[in-house]
Structure of Restriction endonuclease:
Amino acid sequence: MSTIEESLRAISERVKSHSSTMATEEAVKTAVVLPFLRSLGYDVFDPTEVVPEFTADAVGKKGEKVDYAIKIDNEIRILIECKPISVSLDKKHLDQLYRYFSVTNAKFAILTNGRTFNFYTDLDAPNKLDTRPFFVFDVTDFSAGIVTELRKFEKSAFDVAAILATAERLKYTSGIKQVISKLIEEPTDDFVRTVSGGVYEGRMTAQVKEMLTGVVRTAFREVIMDTVKSRLSSALADTEEVIEKIDTPVEEEPDVVTTEEEREGYMIVKAIVRDTISSKRVIMRDQKSYCGILIDNNNRKPLARLWFNRSVKYIGLFDGESEERLIVDSLDQIYDYSDRLRVTAKKYADS
C-alpha cells in the first residue's frame, strides 16, 4: 500500500470517527490538511515550503490571508483554503483564493472542509481561477482512481503540464456526473418525455407525468445497478482466483488472518438463521480470498461467503443454483438478506 493510500485511510477513519471535533478551521488544518500534505511529500514543518497564513500585498485587502501556500522550486504553485467540516463548500468561499490566484504564480487552488477537497485551476481564462472545480473527492470515500490523480500533486512528481492534460476532462466528467446524479433523483419534464416517448403513446397529463417520473427514476437506478453488477462480475472473473467448486474439499490455507469485520459478519449470519437451524451447526472457515460460513463445517453445505478482503465488499448467497455476490456497504446490510439466508439454512436443517 502506498504512502498516499495509508495516509488517506488514516485521515478517512479520523474524519468518520471524530468529525464532531473538527468544528473549527484550525482543527481541520491539524487533523486533516497537514497530514494530507505530508502524504504528498511536502515538509509541513518547513515554512518556506508550506507557508501558513500566506499574504500578498498586491491583493489590496489588509489582513486577508490564505491558509497555506505551497512552494515548489521556490515558486508558489498551490493555494489552500480551509473551512470547518460543517461548512458546505460553495463558490462564495473562493473569494480569497480567487484574488490570490491572480497575483501569484499559483497554478492550482484547493478548497476543503476536511471531508471534501475541491481542486481548481484556470481552464476557462488564463490566470483567472475557475468557479467550478476540475477535481473533487471525499476523503471518506476514496478510490484507486482518486489516488492516481493525487499522485500528480506529489512534490517529487509535480508537473503542471501533466495535471492540466487531464484537468479539462476531469472537470467536464465531474460536471456531467453531477447532472446525471440530479436527473436520477429529480428527472426533468423534458427528460421524462424523451425516455418515455417510445414507450408511452398516450396524452401526457399531469397525472401521467407524475406516474412516469417515478417510473423513470426507478428504471434509471435499476439500469445503473445492473451495469455495476455486470461489470463487477466481469472484473471478478478476470482478476480474481477461480472460485472453488462446492464439491471440492476446502483446505485450511496458511497465513489466513480473520478480521474483526469478518467475525462480526459471521455472528450476524449465525444470529439470522438461529431460528431455522441450530447455531452449533453454523461454522466459520476462513480462506485467503473469502470467509466461508458453512453448515456442519461441510464445504458441500455453504451458507454464505464474506468477500471482505477488498475495497468493494460483498456477501455470497447460495439460495440459487450457484453463488450470487451482492455488494454490502456495511455489516448492517447483511440483515437485508435475512430471508435468503434462512432459505439456504432450511435446505440443510433436516440433513
